[in-house]
């Protein structure tokens, strides 16, 4: 454990000043500002699909932040899961339902002030917590501290129980989703080439009766 | 590992990225033609029409760049870049020869490669939506659905190799390769290559650009250079998927004289696989959309899981 901690950097109180930042820290801050900007635009824009695309910028920027913190594995997982799957699913859902080009004024929710209050409260809590927990401690970043090997060792040696509990939670969510999506009316007949399905036939029958 | 070294590697990758897809494209012209009993391009450049793709490029560059009036202008113009760039980034991580003959050695190579390739679909989605054309939108939707379902078997097959090698770095995997991996990982190789074909939207998985149903899918409204960029991304994709299958399942640079000729082996295997991609295009008819989905969920994923189990059992048995 102690060697791993050493690899991950020390938590000694800061001996450096905040006024002489390294290049890495400057880039980290700049990317952070870009991420914040993209996040704000993605919740304030009036165009639905643009909001989803700004979310891409936000999540991609977060991956860059992970990279700058030497957490390489986490960065690629972020790209794989959030950019490659979650945003694509969001876009897919938007396009399947309603995604007009241009502004969609009916997308404004009446709850936005409540949402803003909740978001500000959550952000305030998190910032207070992190600032209070770390105060002036300084993490020395050494290359390789967030490599696949180090992450795997942490995850499967020291945090196995939470990891397994999370996987059970995900399994429960999966089963729940399947149960919710079944409507219990039996199987829908598979479409066959060259044969009309029953609903169509009943429509034509109805029109004949008329 | 200084700045000049990094820069040189990036430039070399860019050159490869610009040359290999064109070679594959020209091969496709000729191979398809001969398989269908004709000659293919014969005039451009003189010898067997070798300059046909250069001529095509000049033609594309001369065409007017049209943006439909109802389209979302900025996203419409951005989409080709989003579709093309991921393949360039992926090419950077594919090892060609032993001893650091790779654009950039990345610690979590497999993850990087599969993650970045997944971004390419955003380009098709953006193109399909921003074109303000219902065929484009349908094409974009089909692309998204296809990629979502084929990414899973691809990941599982790649995970099987990573398990066998005990590392997720691409050069590390090729280093750990032995000849008996080929029979051991056959199912995984089949699943990976098939899912890769589906990810590229090549026949028989080209439902998203089915010309008899939805014209040319997400790319219907594109003209000129932007259309050429989409085509280029398809051919770059062939190079990337063939290269990845080579590296993961066929042992990359391993072969006779691999110390001095390793890069040649990688290239040869990659081109053999690219030939198979072209061959399949000429041979098979297009699948129907529901057949496509059923194939992914009821054939490829169970096969990939079986391969994963097999890899695990043998790995435990030999260790």
TrEMBL record, chain A:
<keyword id="KW-0520">NAD</keyword>
<feature type="transmembrane region" description="Helical">
    <location>
        <begin position="80"/>
        <end position="101"/>
    </location>
</feature>
<feature type="transmembrane region" description="Helical">
    <location>
        <begin position="51"/>
        <end position="74"/>
    </location>
</feature>
<keyword id="KW-0874">Quinone</keyword>
<dbReference type="InterPro" id="IPR042106">
    <property type="entry name" value="Nuo/plastoQ_OxRdtase_6_NuoJ"/>
</dbReference>
<comment type="similarity">
    <text>Belongs to the complex I subunit 6 family.</text>
</comment>
<comment type="function">
    <text>NDH-1 shuttles electrons from NADH, via FMN and iron-sulfur (Fe-S) centers, to quinones in the respiratory chain. Couples the redox reaction to proton translocation (for every two electrons transferred, four hydrogen ions are translocated across the cytoplasmic membrane), and thus conserves the redox energy in a proton gradient.</text>
</comment>
<keyword id="KW-0812">Transmembrane</keyword>
<feature type="transmembrane region" description="Helical">
    <location>
        <begin position="26"/>
        <end position="44"/>
    </location>
</feature>
<feature type="transmembrane region" description="Helical">
    <location>
        <begin position="113"/>
        <end position="134"/>
    </location>
</feature>
<feature type="region of interest" description="Disordered">
    <location>
        <begin position="189"/>
        <end position="210"/>
    </location>
</feature>
<dbReference type="Pfam" id="PF00499">
    <property type="entry name" value="Oxidored_q3"/>
</dbReference>
<keyword id="KW-1003">Cell membrane</keyword>
<protein>
    <recommendedName>
        <fullName>NADH-quinone oxidoreductase subunit J</fullName>
        <ecNumber>7.1.1.-</ecNumber>
    </recommendedName>
</protein>
<dbReference type="InterPro" id="IPR001457">
    <property type="entry name" value="NADH_UbQ/plastoQ_OxRdtase_su6"/>
</dbReference>
<keyword id="KW-1133">Transmembrane helix</keyword>
<feature type="transmembrane region" description="Helical">
    <location>
        <begin position="154"/>
        <end position="180"/>
    </location>
</feature>
<keyword id="KW-0472">Membrane</keyword>
UniProtKB/TrEMBL annotation, chain B:
<feature type="transmembrane region" description="Helical">
    <location>
        <begin position="262"/>
        <end position="283"/>
    </location>
</feature>
<feature type="transmembrane region" description="Helical">
    <location>
        <begin position="295"/>
        <end position="318"/>
    </location>
</feature>
<keyword id="KW-1278">Translocase</keyword>
<keyword id="KW-0472">Membrane</keyword>
<dbReference type="Pfam" id="PF00146">
    <property type="entry name" value="NADHdh"/>
</dbReference>
<protein>
    <recommendedName>
        <fullName>NADH-quinone oxidoreductase subunit H</fullName>
        <ecNumber>7.1.1.-</ecNumber>
    </recommendedName>
</protein>
<keyword id="KW-1003">Cell membrane</keyword>
<feature type="transmembrane region" description="Helical">
    <location>
        <begin position="227"/>
        <end position="250"/>
    </location>
</feature>
<feature type="transmembrane region" description="Helical">
    <location>
        <begin position="78"/>
        <end position="96"/>
    </location>
</feature>
<feature type="transmembrane region" description="Helical">
    <location>
        <begin position="108"/>
        <end position="131"/>
    </location>
</feature>
<feature type="transmembrane region" description="Helical">
    <location>
        <begin position="152"/>
        <end position="173"/>
    </location>
</feature>
<keyword id="KW-0830">Ubiquinone</keyword>
<dbReference type="InterPro" id="IPR001694">
    <property type="entry name" value="NADH_UbQ_OxRdtase_su1/FPO"/>
</dbReference>
<comment type="subunit">
    <text>NDH-1 is composed of 14 different subunits. Subunits NuoA, H, J, K, L, M, N constitute the membrane sector of the complex.</text>
</comment>
<keyword id="KW-0874">Quinone</keyword>
<keyword id="KW-0520">NAD</keyword>
<comment type="similarity">
    <text>Belongs to the complex I subunit 1 family.</text>
</comment>
<keyword id="KW-0812">Transmembrane</keyword>
<comment type="function">
    <text>NDH-1 shuttles electrons from NADH, via FMN and iron-sulfur (Fe-S) centers, to quinones in the respiratory chain. The immediate electron acceptor for the enzyme in this species is believed to be ubiquinone. Couples the redox reaction to proton translocation (for every two electrons transferred, four hydrogen ions are translocated across the cytoplasmic membrane), and thus conserves the redox energy in a proton gradient. This subunit may bind ubiquinone.</text>
</comment>
<feature type="transmembrane region" description="Helical">
    <location>
        <begin position="6"/>
        <end position="25"/>
    </location>
</feature>
<keyword id="KW-1133">Transmembrane helix</keyword>
């Amino acid at each position: 454990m102690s060697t791993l901690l050493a690899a991950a950097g020390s938590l000694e109180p800061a001996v450096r000043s905040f006024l002489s930042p390294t290049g890495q820290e400057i880039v980290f801050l700049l990317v952070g500002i870009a991420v914040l900007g993209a996040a704000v635009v993605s919740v304030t824009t009036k165009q639905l699909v643009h909001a989803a695309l700004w979310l891409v910028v936000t999540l991609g920027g977060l991956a860059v932040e992970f990279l700058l913190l030497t957490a390489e594995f986490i960065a690629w997982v972020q790209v794989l899961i959030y950019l490659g799957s979650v945003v694509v699913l969001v876009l897919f859902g938007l396009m399947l339902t309603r995604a007009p080009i241009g502004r969609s004024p009916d997308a404004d929710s009446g709850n936005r002030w409540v949402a803003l209050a909740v978001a500000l409260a959550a952000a305030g809590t998190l910032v207070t917590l992190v600032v209070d927990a770390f105060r002036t401690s300084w993490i020395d970043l050494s290359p390789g501290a967030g490599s696949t090997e180090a992450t795997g060792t942490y995850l499967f040696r020291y945090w196995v129980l939470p990891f397994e509990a999370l996987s059970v939670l995900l399994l429960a969510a999966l089963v729940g989703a399947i149960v919710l999506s079944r409507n219990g009316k039996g199987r829908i007949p598979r479409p066959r080439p060259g044969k009309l399905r029953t609903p169509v036939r009943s429509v034509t029958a109805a029109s004949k009766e008329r | 590992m200084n700045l000049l070294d990094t820069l040189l590697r990036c430039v070399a990758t860019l050159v490869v990225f610009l040359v290999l897809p064109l070679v594959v494209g020209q091969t496709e012209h000729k191979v398809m033609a001969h398989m269908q009993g004709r000659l293919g391009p014969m005039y451009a450049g003189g010898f067997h029409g070798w300059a046909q793709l250069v001529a095509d490029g000049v033609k594309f560059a001369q065409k007017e760049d049209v943006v439909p009036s109802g389209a979302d202008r900025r996203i419409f113009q951005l989409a080709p870049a989003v579709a093309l760039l991921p393949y360039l980034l992926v090419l950077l991580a594919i090892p060609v020869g032993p001893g650091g003959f790779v654009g950039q050695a990345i610690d979590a190579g497999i993850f990087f490669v599969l993650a970045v390739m997944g971004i390419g679909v955003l380009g098709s989605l953006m193109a399909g939506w921003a074109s303000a054309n219902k065929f484009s939108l349908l094409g974009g939707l089909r692309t998204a659905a296809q990629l979502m379902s084929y990414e899973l078997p691809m990941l599982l097959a790649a995970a099987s190799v990573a398990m066998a090698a005990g590392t997720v770095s691409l050069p590390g995997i090729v280093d750990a390769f032995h000849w008996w991996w080929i029979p051991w990982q056959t199912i995984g190789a089949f699943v990976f290559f098939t899912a890769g074909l589906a990810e590229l939207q090549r026949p028989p998985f080209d439902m998203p650009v089915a010309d008899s149903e939805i014209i040319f899918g997400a790319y219907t409204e594109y003209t000129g250079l932007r259309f050429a960029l989409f085509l280029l991304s398809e051919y770059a994709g062939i190079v990337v998927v063939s290269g990845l299958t080579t590296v993961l399942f066929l042992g990359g640079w391993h072969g006779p004289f691999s110390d001095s000729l390793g890069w040649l082996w990688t290239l040869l295997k990659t081109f053999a696989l690219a030939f198979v991609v072209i061959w399949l295009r000429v041979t098979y008819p297009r699948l129907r959309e529901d057949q496509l989905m059923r194939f992914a969920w009821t054939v490829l994923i169970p096969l990939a899981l079986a391969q994963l189990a097999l890899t695990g059992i043998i790995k435990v048995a030999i260790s």
